[in-house]
Amino acid sequence: MPVVVVTDSSSCLDPELVGRYGIRVVPLHIIAAGRDLREGVDELPEDLSTVTTSGPSPAELTDAYTEALEASGGDGVVAVHLSRVLSGTWDAARHAAESLGDRIRLVDSRNTAMGSGFAVLEAVRAARAGADLVRVHDRAVEVAASARTLLVVDRLDHLRRGGRIGTATALLGTALAMKPVLHISDGKLVLREKTRTMTKAMAKLVDGAATDVGDEPLVAVHHRDAPDRARSLADQLAQRLPDGTEIIVSELDAVLGAHVGPGAVGVVVASAATGASGTSED
């Protein structure tokens, strides 16, 4: 049996791909009106402005890893999760993995959305090609390390409320009516530059992605309640990227959407080429 790959719902993977490759997805949680709801399992509220979020518990991850290990026939499990800086999921994953032994290998993607998702997909493809546990793990690390994520939000108060950026940065952006371009650096969401309009901010996303793109590019455009804006961004990217580059366009999951707010758009660029630079901690 091939190595089985596990991730969490922040990877924003297409359900069709999840089913096709047998990827195990552990849901993150939305807390709404006192109810603990599992993303992708329970019905979630449309209005996410007042919800809080949490990661899966160690028990949930232990169950997922155990089932995946059994499905692998003992060959092993590679679990790729969102940045430890952005969520407590990593700590829960470490706790769960420690109870199951060395056939569970963890990857901190230091990213989120398809910044994690591309690492998951390439790891699964390696497993299906016959790679052993170490090589599947290393493939996930390699692709995760190549990922670059850029994001622009309509308002910074959602990120401030969730603790993902500092209060001073949020107040500055709101007071000056800025459209800040953010990026993930070493697992943290930080300000890259400030722009005055969404049009200029999206142009910065295109420029940044086109600059970061490498060999065998993997590209995704994400949005939250902004499909037209996302399609416009994808069209602009297509003019700057190598011919034939596939651009995945998908909506951010509810947990990420609760933090970035409606109107947010972003782009993830990674590389499927071997020898991608950077490291990701196990």
From TrEMBL:
One of its GO terms (molecular function) is lipid binding. The keyword Ribonucleoprotein does not apply. The keyword Chaperone does not apply. Keywords: Lipid-binding. Pfam families: DegV. InterPro entries: DegV (IPR003797), DegV_C (IPR043168), DegV_domain_contain (IPR050270). This is Degv family protein. It comes from Rhodococcus gordoniae.
